[in-house]
Amino acid sequence: MAxxxxxxxxxxxxxxxxxxxxxxxxxxxxINTGLAVSSAKDNGGVFAIAQSMxxxxxxxxxxxxxxxxxxxxxxxxxxxxxxxxxLLVEMKEKALAASDSxxxxxxxxxxxxxxxxxxxQISTIVANAEFNGTNLIANGATDITALANAxxxxxxxxxxxxxxxxxxxxxxxxxxxxxxxxxxAAAATAIETSLNNLNASLxxxxxGSKSLEIHSSFVGKxxxxxxxxxxxxxxxxxxxxxxxxxxxQVKQQLGIQALSIANSAPSSILGYFR
Length: 274
Prior knowledge:
Blueprint: H1 8-33, H2 44-98, H3 105-128, E1 144-147, E2 155-158, H4 181-234, H5 238-264
Antiparallel strand pairs: 1-2
């Protein structure tokens, strides 16, 4: 039927052209963002999964920062403990030398001065073995914890080790001297005990540092795997989108021509009235 009121061909051509324009807009958005799913309206289920995984990735960034902070704190404590161990070795040498009963008074006085200087240096090291306001080897130090998972429900705890002269790890005191044979022999024995206790403390700190390092490496790999998974879900294949863009541009031009042809069809009715 020939009519000027209704043009079914133009309607169909317009619908197809509109669909092509919508597809073209979608492809352009994917090329601009690099994402096949950039919002919930693109694919609600995939977007929700991706957002949940993004939250986990953000959480693991905080976990890594917590682990790095804890590891640095423990490493500073280890450095302090190792320095104290070296001092104790020197102090033991001085104490054994001073325990020699044949030693003259001047030599004993010189050895005692060296010994007390090394003894006082222990307190200096303990006071300065601090990172970001936390000291694991000071008197009264508390354990530190680091986040272990993205929701904060698990933590890694590293115990404090009191390496001060007032603590129980070192059995020498702030007043220990080697000014007599008896004091020197007692100091040598105390230092030997202190070294054994200190080695045990350093072993525990070393184990804690290693556990933090291992977990930090694991969290890094887990975070990378999550980011890769997010990419697999939402990233656009730009090579494919480029080819689709070319196709849709041609389709758009053909749609415009088809609509033009359909719109010109009613003018043929004028031929009936010539």
